[in-house]
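Hello again, I could really use a second opinion on something today. Take your time with it, there's no hurry, and the full record follows here:

___
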Amino acid sequence: MKVQFPFLRTARGKQIALSLFLIFVSTLVIDQVTKRHAHRTLLTEESPTNLDQYRSTFHEVGTIGSESLDPEHPTSFARLKFHYQRNRGAAFSMLATLDDSYRIPFFYGVTILSVTYILFYLRTLPINYHLTRFGLVMIMAGAIGNFIDRIIQGYVIDFVDVSWNILGFRHDFAVFNVADIAINIGIIAFILEMILKRKPVYAAFQKSSDSPVVRTPEKA
């Protein structure tokens, strides 16, 4: 089956596609480079046979405010640090303890199906749904970035550690990576598109001419 993307037959569509391709490649490269850098600089000790046995150092990036050690008098703060971790599961280490004979095929299958679905969804997406198109590309870049880790190492490298206490609400966020950031940005873009509720515009083409004809859905 031949997969075609109608909006690529317009000059504007080709410009959009090139921009999204550059965003996709840049996100993937940044994700892989930062993970390798974290492995090289934060990992202090690891077992040659057990992937779950390792030690990491912490690198403080910055803190806003100051953390109180007295639980009776908490203070507001926000902290960012780098901390190397290995995640053999999904986001927030879900399914990390699942047996490898089930876990590995599951993640491989989910990633392949997700990327395939995104490509077919991009094919039928209205030409004016820019946020959705951007979001899908970011989600795909993040999914493939973590997929590469699973293929090469058998685990995903996480290293961004965020915690805060704001107005009495304290939260130590799960350690994540650039691929996870890309996926969340994609989801936010997708939600924003739904909030905007744009009227979909599709690109149609005359059979006897290469000139594009933009059409909108007929009113009921």
The mean pLDDT is 82.
